[in-house]
Every structure is written in structure tokens, then in C-alpha cells.
Amino acid sequence: MQFADLQDVLIIDDSALHRQVAADICADIGFKSIRHAANGDEGLSMIRQQMPHLVLLDLEMPKVDGVQVMQQLAAENLQPHIIVTSGKDYLLISTVELMGRSLGLPVLGGLKKPLKTAELQDLLQRLYAISGAQEKELDLCEETDIRVALDEGHIIPYYQPKVSLHGGLLKGAEMLARWKHPEQGIIPPARFIPVIESNGWTTELTLKMLEHGLAQWQDWARRGLRLPLSINLSAVSLKGNTLISEIEGRLRKSHVPPRFIIFEITETAIAENLAEAIGIAARLRLGGMGLSIDDFGTGFATLQQLTRFPFTELKIDQSLVTSVADKPHLEAILNSVIELASRMQLTTVAEGIETTTDLDFMHHRGCLMGQGYYIAKPMPADNFTGWVKERMQQRHEPTAPASGTEEPSGS
Ligand code: C2E
Ligand code: MG
Ligand code: MG
């Protein structure tokens, strides 16, 4: 695989042999310029001279080591993407990764030396996703078609259950937008949300999802199911100031208790709009709604930034959850994330539970809830009630839960 946009990599390593191995791999992958530094000081001055796209940073170096390089970069507010490399064990590498992120540096991940092409490519794909280049490759839908779909109500929510990892009780559902296309069938959000965002229609999407959710909540409540519903907020909608009053107006009219509505904001959205995000978050919480940090572990929000937010829930990204038992180096990160969340009294939710092993692993780490294909895929509202019934029968529970048994946690 070639990465067309990759310009410039700086390899900081005291071993000439390891620098050469890394340089060969970077050349294969398609970097246009490859620079070398034989120690931390030299690396820092090269970064100051010209900011590279990516730094491969060795941890163990005489005098100024990799940890000190990161501390210095943070102090000078220099933020190249960083991949930590080391011959040491994965636990040390992942601890340093976490330290870099909590300093606010964009650390893509860590690799054990000697580097391997496939592993570096995996991490670079992450850089690609972050820079939005993935969207370019995606087959985005036409703007005019999306406008019509919004107007005619073809964009609807699917519901994915969230369950307790201890005992499996249904705890809530996330609403995920789908375009029900008359000819093409169901279109996933990745193909239309970027277009909605670039046209400034995100508030409209949020409010439509909310309206669907509130009506659905009432319908389910009449049948004895009072279920917390989560709605995704896009980064773009954190900028305006009309969103909150529109949300509050709809909530009041619906008579749905606000604590049953949870808004999810991604870690990246927060990092991008810190001041606005704090304002919106505070107002949502003042209105009694829940607030969740989505995709935690993919962005570069610092742990310190997060403690300033009135979150009620933390959703651990699927990249840290799916097949986690095969990724021992993630364990240290997961343990500290779950510990931090519980210290902040946040409900933890593991996203992307695909197997019983994922579920057991996250449960044993102390994560409270889970969501993922192993439990159920996102589904239309009509199928959701059937799923609930079937699950309750399997679990020998009464078919309609008593009203109020599914209280939201964390609010
Ligand atoms: P998200 O909020 O992190 O949602 C979770 C995504 O993971 C969903 O993808 C869900 O279908 C998928 N997923 C759930 N369980 C598993 C699993 O076990 N394995 C795997 N591989 N994937 C799983 P989906 O529905 O395609 O949504 C993608 C993203 O689009 C969402 O990520 C969210 O950021 C955005 N999105 C969806 N609906 C809305 C919306 O109404 N408004 C906004 N602003 N964004 C939305
Ligand atoms: Mg979400
Ligand atoms: Mg997520």
C-alpha cells in the first residue's frame, strides 16, 4: 500500500542500524523525504527547523531520551505526529504513548524494534484516518440527493443496544443515522455525514435524530421500556449557539425526562473546539442530559482536558476493544483509562465487542457496559423491540421490563 500524501519523516534513533532499517521501510511506503537524527538534541533542532509530518522516536538514547524529547516538544508547543519505537517491552512502550498523549502530543502509537513494514503501515492508516484522507477515498453521496433525503425524512436512526457487561441487562441504545435510499437500500453514515457537515446541516441532522428518538422513547415507554437513548453530536455542531435551545425546546414538548437522553461527543471534536465544547457540554448537563465522550483512545485529548468536562460516560473506542486479548500492549492503556473513568465517576462503555472473549476481557478490566456486533448490530426500531423480547425470553426475564428498571446510569 502506498500513502500518497506522506511527505516527510524524521527518524530519531541512536542506532545507525535501526535508523537504516526504518529509513528503508519509510522509502518503501512512499515517504518523499527521510531525515535522520542520531540523538534527541539533534532531533529537536531538526524539528524546530522544519516540522516533519511524522517522527519515529526511539525511547532509549544517551543524554536526551525519547521521553525527554516528547516533554520538550510539548513545552515548546511543537506537535508533529509521533510513533514511539523501542526494543523494550510493549508495556513500557504503551505507557510512554499514554504519557505523550496526556502531554497533548499526537502520538499515533508505539512499535517494537526492529520495525516491520506491516506494523508501520497499520499505524499510518490511523494518521490517514485522522487527517480525513479516508473520506476522499470513500464514495461520498451527492449533496443534492442528501438535501432531498433530509427534507423527505429518508435519514432515520438505527438503534444499537448497550448492555451491562455484568449480567447483560439492557442499559440503553445508541442511535446511528442511516439513509434509507429508495433504490440503493441502506446507506451508512460515512457516505453522507461528511457532506452534511461540510454544508452546515449538522444541527438539522441532530434535531431530526432527536425528534425520532423522543417519539420512539415515548412509544417504548408506553410498552414498559424506559431506555436511555444516545445521540451523536458532530464536531461542527459545537460551534453554533442555537443547538442547545432547540434541543431543550423539543425535550420540553416531548415530556421525556432529559436524563434519558445522552449526547456523544468525540474526543477529537473536543480537542478541536475546546472552549465551545466546554460551553455546550456544561449547558447540556445543566439541562439534565447525559454527556458521553465517544471514541476515546483515538484522538489526542489530554486526560487533563477531560477532567474539566462534566461527562457522565466514557466510550472506549473499538480499536482498543475488538480482539483486545491478542493485543497485550493495550492492557496498560485500558487499565489506566478505566481507572481514570471510575475515579471521575463515569460509566465506562466498551465499543466494538465482537466476541465473547472481548466481552469477558473488558468485564474483567472493570468496564461496566458494552456495545458491539456480539451483542447486536444496529437495527431499525421495529426490530429492536423484537430483539429485546427475544433476549429477555432467552434470559428468562418477564417480556416487558417494569417501568423505570432501565434507569440511566451516571446522571
Ligand atoms: P460511533 O458513534 O463511534 O458509532 C459506533 C460505530 O461502530 C457504528 O458505525 C456502529 O455500527 C459500529 N459498530 C458497533 N458495534 C461494532 C462492532 O462490534 N464492530 C464494528 N466493527 N463496528 C461496530 P456507524 O453506524 O457506521 O457509524 C459510524 C459513525 O458515524 C459513528 O461512530 C458516528 O461518529 C457517526 N454517526 C452515526 N450517526 C450519526 C448521527 O446521527 N450524527 C452524527 N453527527 N454522527 C453520526
Ligand atoms: Mg457514538
Ligand atoms: Mg464511537
Question: Which secondary structure elements does this structure contain, and how are they paired or packed?
Answer:
Blueprint: E1 8-12, H1 16-29, E2 33-37, H2 40-49, E3 54-58, H3 66-75, E4 81-86, H4 90-102, E5 107-112, H5 117-130, H6 133-137, H7 143-151, E6 155-164, E7 170-181, E8 185-187, H8 193-198, H9 202-222, E9 229-233, H10 243-254, E10 261-266, H11 267-272, H12 274-286, E11 290-296, H13 303-307, E12 313-316, H14 331-343, E13 347-350, H15 356-364, E14 369-370, H16 381-394
Parallel strand pairs: 1-2, 1-3, 3-4, 4-5, 7-9, 9-10, 10-11, 11-12, 12-13, 13-14
Antiparallel strand pairs: 6-7, 6-14, 7-8
Bound molecules: ligand C2E and magnesium ion (MG) (2 copies).
Structure, explained:
- The termini are far apart.
- The protein has helices at residues 16-29, 40-49, 66-75, 90-102, 117-130, 133-137, 143-151, 193-198, 202-222, 243-254, 267-272, 274-286, 303-307, 331-343, 356-364, 381-394, and strands spanning 8-12, 33-37, 54-58, 81-86, 107-112, 155-164, 170-181, 185-187, 229-233, 261-266, 290-296, 313-316, 347-350, 369-370.
- The protein is of the alpha/beta class and 411 residues long.
- The relative contact order is 0.09.
- 42% of the residues lie in helices and 19% in strands.
- The protein folds into two domains: 8-136, 3-Layer(aba) Sandwich (Rossmann fold), CATH 3.40.50; 143-405, EAL domain (TIM Barrel), CATH 3.20.20.
- Helix 2 packs parallel to helix 3 and helix 9 (202-222) runs parallel beside helix 10 (243-254).
- It is built from 16 helices and 14 strands.
- The strands form two sheets. It has an eight-stranded mixed barrel with strand order 6-7-9-10-11-12-13-14, surrounded by five helices. It has a five-stranded parallel β-sheet with strand order 2-1-3-4-5, sandwiched between helices.
- It is globular.
- One magnesium ion (MG) is lined by residues 174, 232, 264, 294.
